[in-house]
């Protein structure tokens, strides 16, 4: 049974305190990733307002566009894979959001993020089958919402605001935001009493025009949502200037049935005052002044919508938390999204093959078919799989971050399922090798998950192949911070760069310089700055590559391919399988996966002969690594893929 709305409002303070104290490290990481690209936020009902909050924050703090979509729109609209896709849901149970999640995951956007208020829900189960999804579960202390989103909405909005402030505004203090917002949650506070007295005039009329500015759009949107869902009244929305473009004419014809509610943030004060003075005197006006700026005003406008809904319910004798759901409404809720015609398959081409070709070409198979190039790529795909299935591999060489461990978990050892596959390879007749841009941390982590008896059968290439040794060798790697002569002057030039100072962490090793952003910086920006320093200084002995979390600059001749050559010497030149995640130039696995038998778990090169990603649609990263390794069986003097395992 739904909760009384008054009970839900009484717990807003508790929810806000919880959201101000919750651990948001995972959310911060997801927001930082989202900051690299445009964003689409998907939600239904009250979560659609949370999606509005996310887009408002994203556009304000990153300068990149965002769009709010319902699940129906998200399933129907195809954006390029670079667009981050976020799904917001309080319970994770409704059929629409789950259908959208499945559809978007299959499209393999660079980021899929799900913000959910309930663990062990249908949407979390979907995400757990796709480890690359950023799944963030925050169950609010007030539990499940009633008929309307209240505590989950305030909780999500506060968490998102905290994350964006933390990642993108290192000079701001969240305490300053909290100090402005907290008094608005106390029903007995002076600001709330002033608001309540002001809105009494609204209940005389069935229709309310809600005027808002950029900072208060979220509150206006939620008022429309709640008044419609609880049948509290007719709402029309307009920002202060769009109201002047014809929408004011409603008052000329139906002013006797209409009131005006103005949400006024500090930045709107002058425009709002001038606008309201021109409203006909017979039209009731309520003005809610929302304190603060930026996220404080955004949250304040949302809180005003939550309070206003309760006051409207009391005035019109409707409990917004328990309005009653008609039988036809229940049937409407459980309708499924319409099925769209498949866009990614072609005649005689299964979904996995179509996905592999799309990753290679960046184009749908239907478009390739129209250009008469699909047959070429279909044959290239078949030829590559045929070579893999006919080959006995004497060794498997894997990248580490993004391949053996998820990039978000790179400070932890490999998961047990991946570690088990690594041990199985090490125990076979083939050699297991790791090629990584890192140093001793990888040695320590591998020793944690592999038994000591296997250490002498595992080769590790550290610092992108600059140093190579057995896992059992305590002498490798050499972690000295004294760089080699080829990189010495460059290391000084990078350290003296004004653009890098304070924004990137520089780590020097003998044959490698690593740059990692300290706070948010677009990946391309760090890449461009490093290149500029290299080009201006004429450092011809340096090679720059990009990993999932850093820029690695190595001395000429240093490459992950050195690990492949080293292992080939050990196995007498026999065939070697290589697996990595950044196979597209300038990714740091480009050289590793340019070998004849290179498999990617994520990005691929444009070469039709190698570096394919053969994962099922909607999979990437360590789940694909597990699939590849699990498909390898022990064979005489090596390992072979099971027939049909890669089809």
From TrEMBL:
GO molecular function (one): hydrolase activity
InterPro entries membership: HAD-like_sf (IPR036412), HAD_sf (IPR023214), SIS_dom_sf (IPR046348)
UniProt key word Nucleus: no
GO biological process, any: carbohydrate derivative metabolic process
Gene3D superfamilies, per database record: 3.90.1070.10, HAD superfamily/HAD-like
UniProt keywords, alphabetically: Hydrolase
Protein name as annotated: Hydroxymethylpyrimidine pyrophosphatase-like HAD family hydrolase
Provenance organism: Aquamicrobium defluvii
UniProt lineage: Bacteria, Pseudomonadati, Pseudomonadota, Alphaproteobacteria, Hyphomicrobiales
